[in-house]
Amino acid sequence: MKIKPSCLILLSILQIVLPLVLTGCWDSVELNRRAIVSGVAIDRGPSEKEKYRLSFQVIVSEEISGENTRSTSPVSLYTGSGRTMFEALANASRQTARFLSLAHVRVLVISEEFAREGIKDMLDVLERESDTRLTSLMFISRGQPASDLMSTMTVFSKIPANDLVEKLDTTSKQFGYNFRVEVDDVVRGIQTVGGGPIINGVFTTGDRNSADTNDNMKTIAPSAILRVSGMAAFRDDKLKGWLDGNAALGTVLLHNKIKEVPVIVKSPAGGYISFNVYKSQVHLEVQAKDPEHPVITIKITQQAALKESANVLNLTSPQVLEELSGRLTDETRKQIEAAVSAARELKSDYLGFGEAVERRNPRGWKKVRDHWEVVFAHCEVRIEADAVIRHTDMRSNSFQVNK
C-alpha cells in the first residue's frame, strides 16, 4: 500500500508544528511573583472551623541576597486557619502579595497537641500536593506551639528553617542520637503493623519575647535558642510519648542510625571516662517457628575511641582496656534494654521487631499480626553486645602532677 505524497507532507508539517504548540507551562508563575516558603508549622486551632492553623516561614529575598536591603527580618511569618490544611493555605495566601511556593520547604513542624490527635490527614495532603517534597524534614514541637519554632531568629543562619536543618545534621553526625526523619520515612512508619514512626523533637529555650526580633542575633548570648532534643514515639499516627536518654539512644541504635555518640562510664579508679562510639552495627536474628513466642536476638558490635581519662589508669595495659571495654558493653546493653522497655510501655513496636518476624516467618506472621501488641509485650529478647576500644587518641596514660 502506497502512501500519498500529500499525506506525507501533512505528517511532516504536524511533526514540526506540534512541538511548538506544546512547549511551555500553562500554569507557570514567574519567580518574582513567588513567595518561597522555607518552613511550615502546623498547630491545632481552637475549634473545628479553625482546626488547622498553618504558619508559613517566607524568605524575604532582598534581605538574603544583600542587594537593596532594608535592614529588616530575613523571613516573614504568615498564618492561616481553616477546616482543612488546603483552606488554611488559601487563607494565608490572602495576606501576601505573591503566590506561596511550597516546593522549597525544608522543615515541617507539628505541635505536640496535634500529634497526639493524629497526623495521618496531614501526611495525605503532603503526599497528594505536587508542590511539596517528601524529603522535607519533620519535627514535633515539644510542649509549645509549632509556630514558635518558625519565629525564632538564629545566629548561624538568616533563615530559621535552615538553622534547624543544620543543627540536626551536626547533632546526628557527632554528638547525639537524633537523625534525619523525612516525610516519606514517617509515611512508611505509620504503615508498620503494631508500630509507628519516631520523629525528632524540637523546642526553644530562653526569652520568647525577643526570639522573633533581630536583637536575638546581636547579643553574645542569644535570648532564645532552637534545640533539637528527644524523640517522639508514635503508635500508628498518634504520638504516645517522648524518648530521652538511654531509651532514645537505644532506639536509634536499633534502627542503625547512630554515626557518632559520646558515652560516659564510671572508671574503676574513680570518676568517669569518656568514649566516642564512632561505629555501631546492629543485626536482629529471629527464631519464629512458634510465632506466638518468638525469640529476638539483638547482636550489636561497636568501635570506640577513648576521649577523656583524668585518672591514674594504665591505658597501655590490655587488661585495663579489656575491663573498660566490658564497662562500655554494659552501658550499651543498658541502652538497648531501656529502648525495649520504653517501647513495651508505650505499646508500640517502632523498633521493627514485627517486621523481622514477618521476614523470618511470613506465614506465621499472618497468624499474629492482628494481636502483635500482645506478643510484642511478652516475647523473649536477648542482647549480645560487644564493644572494642580501638585507640586512645593522641596519648596513652594521662599526665600526673609531680609532687
Automatic annotation (TrEMBL):
Pfam family, one: Spore_GerAC
Domain Spore germination GerAC-like C-terminal per the UniProt entry, residue ranges: 229-392
Membrane topology type: Lipid-anchor
Main location: membrane
Signal peptide coordinates: none
Localization per record: Membrane
Spore germination protein N-terminal domain boundaries: 27-199
Highest taxon listed in the record's lineage: Bacteria
Alphabetized InterPro entries for the sequence: GerAC_N, Spore_GerAC-like, Spore_GerAC-like_C, Spore_GerAC_C_sf
PROSITE patterns linked: PROKAR_LIPOPROTEIN
Keywords tagged on the record: Germination, Lipoprotein, Membrane, Palmitate, Signal
PANTHER family reported for this sequence: SPORE GERMINATION PROTEIN B3
Family statement drawn from the similarity comment of this UniProt entry: Belongs to the GerABKC lipoprotein family.
Official protein name in the record: Uncharacterized protein
Source organism (scientific name): Paenibacillus borealis
